[in-house]
Amino acid sequence: MSVIEINNLTKTYGNARGISNVSFTIEEGEIFGFIGPNGAGKSTTIRTLLSLIYPTSGTARIFGKDSVKFAPEIRQEIGYLPSEVFYYDNMKVIDLLKYSASFYKKDCSKKMKELIEIMDLDVTKKIEDLSLGNKKKVGIVQGLLHEPKLIILDEPTSGLDPLMQQKFFDLLEEQNKKGATILFSSHILSEVQRLCDRVAIIKEGKIVAVEKISTLKENNYKKFKIDSAYILDTNYFQMPGVNHIEVKGHSTSFLFKGDINHVMRRIADIDIENLWIEEPDLEEIFMHYYEKEA
Ligand SMILES: Nc1ncnc2c1ncn2[C@@H]1O[C@H](COP(=O)(O)OP(=O)(O)OP(=O)(O)O)[C@@H](O)[C@H]1O
Predict the structure, then answer these.
(1) Is the CB of 42 within 6 Å of ligand 1?
(2) Would you say residue 128 lies in a domain?
(3) Atom 26 of ligand 1 has which residue's CA nearest to it?
(4) Dist. CA 43 → ligand 1 center (Å)
(5) pTM for the structure as a whole
(6) Domain residues for 225?
(7) Do 203 and 273 lie in a common domain?
(8) Index of the ligand 1 atom closest to the CA of residue 53
(9) How far is CA 294 from CA 12, 203, 289, 291, in A?
């Protein structure tokens, strides 16, 4: 079953672009990544999906139900972590969490306690005394305490230290194993690569690709790095399929897609000291998509 179905969702802010004809589907049990640089439209898509703002046109369905008409009902089963968390500064963490839990029609106290421990939160503190990272942790507990079927995270890791990020990812994987579907937006591609099964790439308000992470990696460029005995001319590897040639001293690198034999023959004609052929990281694949569309 599709947990999220987005069909031609468009949101304009007056004359300003928000998102345009965004469509993608997320299946039950997926961890789905949503990548794009700042301002690409990730938060607008997520806020529209959650009916926090209304679409200019297009529709979204969550759990098979229209996201606007059934918003209150749908929200019972969603855990949402916004990119920026705003709270009542004067409240104690524990009071805020209890208040959040009171919106759900089930007892959240056990899960809340468990999450507080995992996130290592001092719940007796006032919100105003917390660091940015600790505020984010409060947001995480708040978003997960009702064991939602769908978890929507908008740039969730900003402000978290690496150890806490790891704990958080473990927590997400555990929830996913128990059946939760996850939508995870980020501009940090390595974390998407680490966690997600599929990914939608958004650029200037439009979806440019929806791919499996594995397909993205397999069907794309190979990354060549060659250390040569002498400095190569920048044009030496200028041939069909070669992109992003960079010559730094004796080291030459480029991305290649095509019949690898052509490159290997050219390499055989030079005096090389070392050679690496690697899968490009998502960042490079991502650049490729962006350039193809430009
Ligand atoms: N309330 C608003 N009024 C006018 N324009 C807006 C508003 N909110 C967003 N935008 C514009 O819509 C576009 C998409 O913004 P959005 O915040 O969705 O991007 P994003 O991918 O989430 O980026 P970021 O990571 O920076 O939040 C941007 O051009 C932004 O300037």
Answers:
(1) yes
(2) yes
(3) 38
(4) 7
(5) 0.82
(6) 221-278
(7) no
(8) 1
(9) 22, 10, 9, 5
